[in-house]
Amino acid sequence: MTYSIIFDMDGTLFQTDKILEISLEETFADLRKKGLWEKETPIKKYRDIMGVPLSVVWETLLPDHSMEVRSKANEFFHDQLIYTIQNGVGDLYPHVEELFTYLKNRNIPIYIASNGLPNYLEAIMKHYSLDNWVKEVFSIQQIESRDKTDLVHLVMKKYKIQRGAVVGDRLSDIKAAKANGLHAIGCRFDFAKEDELSFADTVIDDLMEIRGIIEKEGILI
After folding, report:
1. Would you list the domain boundaries of the chain?
2. CA separation for the pair 173, 204 (Å, rounded)
3. Nearest-angstrom CA–CA distance, 183 and 158
4. CATH class of the structural domain 3-15+91-217
5. Helices (H) and strands (E) in the chain, counts
6. CB–CB of 173/138 below 8 Å?
7. Per-residue pLDDT tens for 99-125?
8. Angle formed at CA 163 by CA 161 and CA 168, multiple of 5 degrees
9. At what angle do helices 148-159 and 171-179 cross, to 10 degrees?
10. Quick one: pLDDT at residue 112?
11. In this predicted structure, what is the pLDDT of residue 56?
């Protein structure tokens, strides 16, 4: 029975913090130009909720604004994220390619399940040539509920996955793993919170620790 690994993208494989502040500043600068925002850019607030669906992001950042304003802000923000990725501002976390090569050589299929939108994920995949290793990328937009648990279930159903792990930095990833009977590997990276990581089966500080888990404990073999 093949073991598969489903990775989150933001804050797990891709160092979103390197493009987040730039893109968010540009978005709120645009809102200021339009007379729709007067205060500082709520970067800290966004960091606190990083990993939630985008609809929740803009409800939180623009609680007193209309759906139309939120939608346009989201579109502008998204365009800025993609622009910065294409211009090489972001980066993968250390050892992503090394780990992916190792997993591929072990015939362990790799999938990505992310709260990001399809064109954003495509930009990352293309810029870093991740399709050399990743079997398929799944976006939260594919799920009506916008729930990571349901998204992971979709991956499992499509590829008939019965054994595997979900690797992510937030509680939604951990819950998605456990609800679907998979091993929950929490990443203690930029956006991670210790109280959320406490629910994971295993917590890592470096992606290559996954190789150690495979070889020492044999849980993925």
Report:
1. 3-15+91-217, 17-86
2. 14
3. 19
4. alpha beta
5. 10, 6
6. no
7. 999 999 999 999 999 999 999 999 999
8. 90
9. 40
10. 98
11. 86
Are 134 and 125 in contact, with CB atoms under 8 Å apart?
yes
Residue by residue, what is the 3-state secondary structure of 47-93? HHHCCCCHHHHHHHHCCCCCHHHHHHHHHHHHHHHHHHHHCCCCCEC
Question: Are the C-beta atoms of residues 206 and 94 closer than 8 Å to each other?
Answer: yes
Q: How far is the C-alpha of 95 from the C-alpha of 72, rounded, in Å?
A: 36
The arithmetic mean of pLDDT across residues 47-68, rounded, is: 86
Average pLDDT, the chain: 93
| Rounded CA separation 11/47 (Å) | 11
Q: What is the pLDDT of residues 10-50, one digit of tens each?
A: 999 999 989 988 999 999 999 999 999 999 999 889 888 87
Q: How far apart are CA 203 and CA 213, in angstroms?
A: 11
Nearest to 108 by CA among 189, 186, 211, 8: 211
* ∠ Cα 45 49 54 (to 5°): 105
Q: What is the per-residue pLDDT for 221?
A: 46
Task: Give residue 111's region: left, alpha or beta (phi > 0; psi -120 to 50).
Answer: beta
The answer to whether the predicted template modeling score (pTM) of the entire model surpasses 0.85 is: yes
